[in-house]
Amino acid sequence: MIVDRTKQILNENNAFAKKNFGQNFLISKSILEKIVSEANLSKDDYVIEIGPGLGSLTEFLCINSSKVLCYEIDEKMIEILGKTLKEYENKKIIFGDFLKQDVKKDIEEYFGADAKVKVIANLPYYITTPIMFKLLEIDNVTEEIFMVQKEMGDRFTGVVNTKDYNALSVYVKYYTETKKAFLVGRNNFFPAPNVDSVILHSFMKKKDYGLKNEANFLKFIRNAFVQRRKTFANNISSAYGLNKQYIETILVNLSYEKTIRSESLSLDEFVSIYLKIFEQ
Ligand code: SAH
Predict the structure, then answer these.
(1) What separation in Å is there between the alpha carbon of 219 and the centre of ligand 1?
(2) From the CB of 263, is ligand 1 less than 6 Å away?
(3) pLDDT, tens digit, 9 for 90 and up, residues 174-213
(4) Cα(243)–Cα(277) distance, rounded to whole angstroms?
(5) Is there an atom of ligand 1 within 6 Å of 153 CB?
(6) Looking at the predicted structure, is the pLDDT value of residue 278 above 80?
(7) What is the 35 CA–ligand 1 centroid distance (Å)?
(8) Is the CB of 25 under 6 A from ligand 1?
(9) Are 224 and 235 in contact (CB under 8 A)?
(10) 152 lines ligand 1 (CB under 6 A)
């Protein structure tokens, strides 16, 4: 098991955990098993892993799925993976920044054009959101199981009328059903980071909200949360240079208080208000 030999593998290869690539390697076998069980893998499953590192999670994925496609940004890790995963033939490792790859094309080549793919990743928190957005555009991806720092997980899964509910929570609800699967304490990593983490499990949603311009809607959500202490009408009127009374009238006509704040509006409510202001 690679996971039992993390420090030894680093030493033998003159490697160390690089901060700039967010390298915190999982050293707990039971956490790896929990991730695999959360992903509900079977021998028919196609998996993408972003950031395999030394390959501890990859090893479990190779054993429990049909084929695994990995993306790793650190050349040193590529060299190490060549050794640690030597015995597994059902994997392909691509060197480079995941955000810059033509993932759709890679999926077609390795799994087939219509393949359904589960994405699994333990990644630095600062690229989680762009990666999530990149994955949303690839219709082969059906599920994502990914590690984020705990506070980030609270925002991803934030519900209406709580302090964690913000633009990101609304985006995530727009595209996915996302739940917190389980917590992962900082001591399960080498080196241990300063924060605890959580595994999130997202199922891609195919719901059509009937919007003509999705990008504009997402911008509208961002604008609605620009200043949390302001009312929804204040945020939207200043973002778009619209008359505040006009926004308030729309709210009142839809049976809301004119002083309502964005943190009290659900995704469906944002959609109906947006449609009234911009698409009708
Ligand atoms: N999955 C392994 C390693 C986690 S550390 C484990 O759980 O032990 C995060 C890994 O992501 C590192 O190997 C790092 O080099 C890689 N990584 C960081 N940014 C990346 C990017 N943009 N694209 C691909 N891999 C990346």
Answers:
(1) 30
(2) no
(3) 999 999 999 999 999 999 999 999 999 999 987 889 899 9
(4) 12
(5) no
(6) yes
(7) 16
(8) yes
(9) yes
(10) no
What is the value of pTM for the model shown?
0.92
The percent of residues above 90 in pLDDT, for the chain, comes to 90
